[in-house]
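explain this:
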Amino acid sequence: MNKKYIAVIGSGSCGEDARDAAYRAGKAIGQAGAVLVCGGLGGVMDAAAKGAAAAGGMSVGILPEQNRLGASRHLTIAIPTDLGELRNALIVRAADAVVSICGEYGTLSEIGFALKLGKPVFGFNTWELGKKGEPDTGITVAETPEEAVSLALDAAV
């Protein structure tokens, strides 16, 4: 199986702009025939899974709890871990590339894990990184969610 796995990361609770962006990203992943990987809950995760489902795509949610309660109903597969936020490393480990949309500190941890693992990260309205007072170029900025997905698909190996 040569499918590409693209993670979409972002806040579990977010505004309509972030939900729309995540839906569009998920839809682009589904249309490309890739697999969406996410944290499996609400907000950006739910919207991305909904977008993937609308395009006939597959989505995998790696859940923080020991059960599937609270999982997005749009997921194809929901995997409970009972790891809480520690499951963030599993999300990026399972992906070939990462798309970050908006996000809070949990999203920042996923970005950090991805960069540490050498996974490419593409961002839309997300974190900006700096080190020692200088900008860090670890996140490639995209102008649209679709561009972020396109870049991620090209970078996925």
User: Anything to note?
Assistant: The chain has five helices and nine strands.
